[in-house]
Amino acid sequence: MKAIVQDRYGSPDVLALREAGRPSPAAGEVLVRVHAAGVDAGVWHLTTGQPYLLRLLGFGLRRPKQPVRGLDFAGTVEEIGDGVTRVRPGDEVFGVCEGAFAEHAIAKQDLVAAKPERVSFEEAAAVLVSGGTALQALRDVGRVRPGHRVLVIGAAGGVGSFAVQLAKAFGADVTGVCSTAKTDLVRGLGAGHVVDYTREDFAARRYDLILDTAGLRSLTDLRRALTPRGTLVIVGGEGGKWLGGIQRVFRAALLNPFVRHRLCGLVARVRAADLETLREMIETGQLTPALDRTYPLADAAAAVGHLRAGRAAGKVVLIP
Fold first, then answer.
1. DSSP code of 170?
2. CA separation, residue 18 to residues 3, 4, 42, 44, 125 (Å)
3. In sequence order, which ranges of 199-284 are alpha helices (DSSP H)?
4. CA neighbours closer than 13 Å in the CB half-sphere of residue 176
């Protein structure tokens, strides 16, 4: 099979299309013919090996432990391992696995679900990593409630585009922050208010919950836009080769005991229950993955570069 293989850290050019051995499923696993694979911000970080903290956390000090990038996927089950009962060969599925940037991939049966009929393979391949992060940030950490004023910073991005729709589905009054070119997308996702950060100050209003997916603003600026007992949830961060912006989360944790605001960081986890929740919300029309564009598998480096440049409005997907 063909796969995008990375044998060293560096720019996206280290992602190369090569021939690789087709894997076989072990007990509890399924072999999927990948029809589409989602590109997320984590791909960039694992490609470059930055921040260096990732290497220290076990992803490989000098080179990646997992040579094939990609997590989100959608495709067709071709083979199942012993003990697999949730899916059968021929089923159309979506979910997450290691090594999704390939023609075939192995996934654990618990992290695979039936593809929602109302979306394409490309849309289904863009769901769990970003959608699950948005779900955990709003529901579990942010404790969003009907009537809450919610601000989503980076509302046109992968996590942000899901967060706008999820917050609306939870009954919140949603404001999305994005650049001029992306305001129509964010409005179409269901945001009741859209702030163009090149022209407006999002702190003109006060919010019960702020979800910051952009990772560039100071805690002082963010707290200025919260209600007296509002909640800030920081998702990811940018800046610095060693920590990559995680220092904002550390500062928030240190400050949190001394202020009335709740200041929280999120390290999202891939969870089977979230996959099922997102699938149900897609089926009922509450959630639709927003796609920016698709690339052939061979153009994985260009896809990752496009995402990193901040030009994407929604998700970027590879087509093997």
1. T
2. 6, 6, 22, 19, 22
3. 219-224, 247-255, 272-283
4. 30
CA 45, chain centre distance (Å): 13
Whether residue 87 is predicted with pLDDT greater than 80 in this model: the reply is yes
Task: Provide the token pair at 120.
Answer: 């394409």
Closest by CA to 100, choosing from 62, 67, 57, is 67
For the entire predicted model, the pTM comes to 0.95
Q: Is the pLDDT of residue 240 over 70?
A: no
Which neighbouring-strand residues pair with 207? 226
DSSP string, 105-163: EEEEGGGEEEPPTTS-HHHHTTSHHHHHHHHIIIIIIS---TT-EEEEETTTSHHHHHH
Q: Name which of 158, 152, 154 is nearest 290 in CA terms.
A: 158
Residues constituting the chain: 320
Spatial CB neighbours of 155, under 8 Å, sequence gap ≥ 6: 161, 163, 164, 176, 177, 178, 182, 186, 189, 191, 194
Question: 3-state SS of 68-97?
Answer: ECCCEEEEEEEEECCCCCCCCCCCEEEEEC
DSSP helix/strand/coil, 242: coil
Question: CB burial class (10 A; 0-12, 13-18, 19+) of residue 196?
Answer: middle
Amino acid at 217: R
Q: 181-213 pLDDT, tens per residue?
A: 999 999 999 999 999 999 999 999 999 999 999
Q: Tokens representing 109?
A: 């049966």
